[in-house]
Amino acid sequence: MSTLKTLVTAGMVAGGMVLALNVGAASAQDVKRDVQDIREDRQDIRKDARDIREDRRDLRQDRRELYQDRKAGDKDAVAKDLQDIRQDRRDLRKDVRDVQQDRRDLRQDRRELRTDRDVAEDRRDIRGDRQDIRKDTQDIRQDRRDLGQDRRQLYQDRKAGDKDAVKADLKDVKEERKDLKADQKDRRQDTRDLRRDRRDLRRDVNQTREAYRK
Hints:
The chain has 2 domains: 37-117; 125-214. Helix content is 97%, strand content 0%. The chain has 4 helices and no strands. α1 (2-72) runs antiparallel to α2 (75-117) and α3 (119-160) packs antiparallel against α4. The model is unreliable at 1-26 (pLDDT under 50).
């Protein structure tokens, strides 16, 4: 029975290692694929932009020819010019649509790349950490104000010889100190979380840059 448990446990560990390696390989492949898609999208946009410039030149040229042929009274040439202009406009609209689609593809591929690298998640974590630290800092300031107020009240009650009030003041001071220590502890933990998330972000960004270079 013990041997069977050992074999099952070993198999699970080995399977987990294989799965981890496969996931890591898949992640790297996803990044390379996303980077390649982005490069191709940019090439498509540059090509379509060149096509649009060419279409506009053709349209301007055909309009100039139409003006000259109308001036010359050449009806056949005018009819051909009008046909050319309509075709130029169709080509221009098609190339504009192509550029718009290429830009949508580029935005989508960039989103996929950010998702694969977990950069967006790291940044959200960092924003959350910063908010937590700001809140902790506000709580600490409030605790210090409350502690200062309680100490002043304790001084006044001692001066007045009010033993019951002094006893209550001492209890308040003790509670405020506990709250202050707890909030300071929370801020130290949130600061550690922030440093860790920044390291994660730098690591993910560096991995993304490596993928771009490859």
